[in-house]
Design a protein that fits this description.
Elements: E1 2-10, H1 27-38, E2 47-48, E3 57-67, H2 76-81, E4 88-96, E5 108-116, E6 130-131, H3 138-146, E7 153-154, E8 169-170, E9 172-180, E10 183-190, H4 197-209, H5 218-224, E11 239-245
Parallel strand pairs: 3-11, 5-6
Antiparallel strand pairs: 1-3, 1-4, 2-3, 5-10, 5-11, 7-8, 9-10
Length: 249
């Protein structure tokens, strides 16, 4: 039995999220369906670095699985891609130690959120960027984001009320605003993110950018540890799990 680490990309538009759900099309269920086919009906469990919600995309989701098949390392991606649907792509597959775990070994993640600031919506980007045609004060948004970089902080105010984990302390290491024509990308790097955390951060920063909130409100929102204190949850389709970081071996 050999353990494999895979980097995968997917268009989340037509999935009910990453994790297996009864009677729902998910990324995990498609991966496990294909692996079962390759293993002549035997179930192969796939573990990931974390879940993504319905509509959320990934450029660098990381998975691992165990297999007894004698397939050369360089052939795994080709074999899997030949059977997977077009909205999932295996970027790479490599042998790893049996102790490697895609979720528990992750040291951090990078998420990106795309905002289309064009006056008119683009039908070709409607599933891949949040159309936000209103003017934004980027300097105010950057000022607000700086408060999150002084952590670690308890992000109870910036996660879904449905969040199950008790420890909501996280460290955000970098927030960057990248402008490319009419596309504004918000880039977040941290040691971990809670359920809906990035989308709520984006929603709150947008409220700062359009003048509904002051940048200086951020410390008080953090202090309240109350979801209702923060801004709206930005739509899922603008969010991408961009990269997962692991300690150097």
């Amino acid at each position: 039995m050999q353990r494999y680490k895979g980097i995968i990309a997917y268009d989340g538009s037509c999935f009910s999220g990453y994790q297996v759900q009864p009677n729902k099309r998910t990324v995990q269920s498609e991966l496990e369906r294909v692996l079962a086919k390759m293993h002549k009906g035997s179930q192969v469990k796939v573990a990931a670095s974390g879940r993504t919600d319905a509509g959320v995309h990934a450029m660098g989701q990381v998975i691992h699985f165990d297999s007894p098949l004698a397939i050369p390392e360089g052939k795994w991606a080709t074999a899997l891609n030949s059977l997977l649907p077009d909205d999932i792509s295996i970027v790479s597959v490599e042998h790893v130690s049996e102790s490697f775990h895609a979720r528990f070994d992750a040291a951090g993640k990078e998420y990106r959120y795309q905002l289309l600031q064009a006056p008119a919506r683009d039908p070709f980007l409607r599933k891949y960027a949040y159309h936000y045609p209103y003017p934004l004060n980027l300097e105010a948004m950057k000022q607000a984001s700086n408060y999150f970089l002084t952590g670690p902080h308890d992000y109870t105010s910036f996660c879904s009320a449905k969040t199950e984990v008790k420890d909501k302390v996280r460290t955000i290491k970098d927030i960057e605003f990248i402008t490319n024509g009419q596309m504004l990308t918000l880039r977040f790097i941290g040691n971990g993110f809670l359920y809906n955390m990035v989308r709520i951060l984006v929603g709150t920063l947008l409220e700062v950018g359009c003048g509904e909130r002051s940048p200086d409100e951020m410390p008080a929102i953090l202090e309240k540890k109350d979801r209702s204190a923060a801004g709206k949850t930005a739509p899922a389709h603008g969010l991408y799990l961009w990269k997962v970081f692991y300690p150097l071996s």
